[in-house]
Each structure stands twice: as C-alpha cells, then as structure tokens.
Structure prediction request, 185 residues.
Amino acid sequence: MDKTIDYFQLENALQKAEADYSTSEAQAIACGMLAVNIAADKVAWAQLIFGEIDPNDRLQVEAIKLTGELHDQCKRQLQDANLAFELLMPDEDESLLLRVSALQEWCNGFLLGVGLSGVSDHKTLPDDTRELLADFTEIGTSGSFDLEDELASEEALAEISEYVRMGVLLINEELQPIKQSTLIH
Prediction:
C-alpha cells in the first residue's frame, strides 16, 4: 500500500519552493500525462511544476522529492487493477470553498496534462474519454456551487469528486489498457 501523501504537507512545500502549481494541479497534471502515456517523463513534469530548477535551493529540492513521490504514486495507482486511485484534495474538514476550488484546479490540471502529452484534438479520442474531458472542462470552469445549502453542496462535491476519480480511471483504461499480466499477479 502506498504511503499516504499529505495534501497540506505537499502544498506547504510547493508554496515554500514557489512552485507554479498547487498540490491538486500537480497531481492532476501528472495523471493527465500518465493517462495518455504511462511512461510520461517525470523530469519534464517537475520542470513544469517548478519552472527553473535550482539544485542549490533546499526548499525546492525538498518539494521536488515530495512531488517525485506523488508522481510515482499516481503511476502505481493508475495501473492498479483494484482501482486504488484517489484525488489528492484537502480534507473534508476544510472549507467547502477550498475543496471546490481544489477540484476545479484538479480538472484544469488534468486537461493540461492530457494536452502536454500531445492530445490536441479530442475528436480523435474514444467517445467516453471525449465526453469526460468535456465534463472536466465544465467542472474546471464552472463558477461555484450554491454554497447557501451546505449539505446539498457537500453531497454534490462528493458526487462530482467520485465522478472525476472514476472518469480518470476510465480515461486511463481507454488510452492505456491495463495489461492482462498485471491482473494475474
């Protein structure tokens, strides 16, 4: 089982290292790239997340180590036959607004990762993948939830988050079918 990566520990490290992306975006970009190409370049991804990399910047080196673990975890989870993949998001006890924003960032990051992997024309993709990417675009660009009815908003966020999680797994399967040999083990 994967060591759980703490959202706020990674977010703090990314902020201290002045990374260009948040934790949710970083995971999503990796997932988008890996869904298109399971051998996506971790170094190119890290360079995107951090911009110019300075090997003498202790804070950046620490954050790169943590994001490297995140990339490896994403790769393992996307290939897991037991559907162990999870979105790296703020905890449920955090504000609804923060979690909605993180989900929107996640969707936008995933779309960026897919695009960075060379998918520019969604028309060439399988139907389900194309529809899911359109849904992710809508989720990422929608204004906000009706936060007046907190219970309904909580339920909607949980449902949409699960939809995104399962959608990522479906996209990954359509673009990178799990090899039968991995199911036998």
Confidence is low (pLDDT under 50) at residues 179-185. Residues 150-175 form the longest helix (26 residues). The helical segments are 7-16, 23-36, 42-50, 58-79, 96-116, 127-141, 150-175, 180-184.
